[in-house]
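Good morning C.,

I know you're traveling, so I'll keep this short. The sequence:
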Amino acid sequence: MGSIKIAGKNIVTQSGSDEPTIASNVVFPAGHIIQLVKFQFTDSDSETGATWQDSPAVISITPQFASSFILVQLFAQLGVDNVQQDTNFSYRIYNTTETDTIYEGKINTSAATGYGYGRAGSSFGGLDISPDSGSNTYRFQYGRNGGSGPISFNPYGKQCVMIAMEIKQ
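The tokens, ready to paste straight into the viewer:
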């Protein structure tokens, strides 16, 4: 059992064989990353629907401070299969807990023979400035707005990463 003190105040405590913990009186400055949650996957998905489709990319985080922001980022490929006609599609990072979109994009892919993977990019991110005080679940969704090409998420089954960071304000 031990502790680290500055000016007579505990900043780190330890009890028995437990891991040391930061004392509750420690104040983190604004901009400090409080926690990071990571989800890695290789799942692929292809959809032809015109409504929002759930991708395999989903992550949950519970903020420790009421005033925190949550930064969500996804690194994955999104595109169109065998584009026989112009195809329009939308994509977003959606907080399913609060039914709120924190990032949304749209793209039009012109007709061509072949594939349009990566046309929407490979890095997507959004900042939730008013997350719920409980657990927040963020999901990447996409859907076709027009055209014929199926939309493909991570078509080659490569390693993808989704992260959520709590940032102190």
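Safe travels,
E.
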